[in-house]
């Protein structure tokens, strides 16, 4: 074997050994990396389980808190509605303000929108005069909402079935409390299918004796009326109640009549 050939063989042998050694080192590094990756994956899985558990706990806590808040909101709203049901709209308005400040955005607050609209006019000065187009019963001379006394206004339409049920009931209320100082006036705009003839026919059929007139909508707007039948009570020049006429009863009206001033709150 020549020297040159011997050197070539030796060089190839060295390269083979070096390659084998390097390959072994690479295998060891890969094995170490795989072991490390496995450990990291295990840690990651543990962390994910902790995160999932904590997330579920947070969600459950948030849901429970929302449910508790909704329950408290509903209870607070029931308290407001109880005062309104007793005819104590002055107190109900105060509680409504506190209720909305604390529970704004809840389902209960959405449910309270209609009642809040009604309570918004409580404490407001009565309009200096009733703007009407025509009187179908009476002449309105006895109606002075700015003077001392108690006045009940009802807003209605002849085509409204609920109005047809509630308005005739006011005659008994008028008969019972008129001599004690209660004034009653019914206001209609004569909308949809209603006509003056139908209105006068309704008055005659039901033997209504309290003042009844047609208004242009100014009075309805002043009292925040958006649905009918609706009613409002004015005492000594101030609005003390707004709601559905069916919510009124003799006990509430007697309380208003007996109370010394517009701020009085009768118990029902």
Summarize the entry for a quick read.
By secondary structure, this protein is α/β, with parallel strands linked by helices. It has helices at 3-85, 89-103, 107-111, 113-119, 161-166, 169-177, 196-205, 218-222, 250-258, and strands spanning 132-137, 150-155, 182-188, 212-215, 230-235, 238-243.
The CATH C-level name of the largest domain is Alpha Beta
Q: What's the helical proportion of residues? A: 55-70%
The residue-averaged pLDDT reads 87
User: What low-confidence regions span 5 or more consecutive residues with pLDDT below 50?
Assistant: 263-268
Tell me the major beta sheet.
6 strands, mixed
Q: How many DSSP helices?
A: 9
Structural class: alpha/beta
- Strand arrangement, major sheet: 1-4-3-2-5-6
What is the CATH H-level superfamily of the largest domain? Answer: Glutaredoxin
Radius of gyration: 40 Å
Task: Estimate the strand proportion.
Answer: 5-15%
The end-to-end distance, rounded to whole angstroms, is 126 Å
Count of domains: 2
Q: Give the oligomeric state of the chains in this entry, treating copies of one chain as homo and distinct chains as hetero.
A: single chain
Task: Assign the CATH topology of the largest domain.
Answer: Glutaredoxin
Q: How many beta strands in the DSSP annotation? A: 6
Shape: rod-shaped
Helix-strand string: HHHHEEHHEHEHEEH
Specify the CATH architecture of the largest domain. 3-Layer(aba) Sandwich
């Amino acid at each position: 074997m020549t020297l040159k050939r011997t050197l070539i063989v030796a060089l190839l042998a060295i390269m083979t050994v070096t390659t084998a050694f390097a390959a072994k080192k690479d295998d060891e590094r890969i094995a170490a990396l795989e072991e490390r990756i496995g450990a990291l994956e295990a840690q990651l899985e543990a962390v994910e389980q902790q995160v999932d558990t904590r997330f579920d706990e947070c969600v459950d806590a948030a849901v429970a808190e929302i449910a508790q808040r909704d329950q408290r909101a509903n209870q607070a709203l029931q308290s407001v509605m109880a005062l309104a049901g007793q005819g104590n709209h002055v107190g109900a308005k105060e509680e409504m303000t506190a209720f909305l400040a604390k529970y704004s955005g809840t389902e209960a607050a959405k449910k309270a929108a209609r009642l809040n609209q009604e309570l918004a006019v409580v404490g407001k000065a009565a309009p200096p005069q009733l703007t009407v187009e025509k009187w179908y019963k009476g002449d309105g001379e006895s109606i002075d909402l700015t003077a001392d006394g108690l006045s009940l206004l009802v807003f209605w339409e002849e085509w409204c079935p609920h109005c047809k049920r509630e308005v005739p009931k006011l005659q008994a209320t008028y008969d019972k409390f008129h001599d004690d100082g209660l004034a009653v006036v019914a206001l209609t705009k004569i909308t949809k299918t209603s006509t003056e003839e139908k209105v006068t026919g309704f008055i005659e059929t039901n033997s209504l004796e309290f003042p009844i007139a047609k208004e242009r909508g100014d009075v309805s707007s002043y009292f925040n009326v958006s649905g009918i039948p609706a009613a409002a009570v004015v005492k000594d020049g101030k609005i003390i109640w707004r709601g559905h006429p069916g919510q009124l009863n003799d006990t509430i009206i007697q309380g208003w009549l007996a109370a010394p001033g517009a701020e009085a709150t009768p118990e029902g």
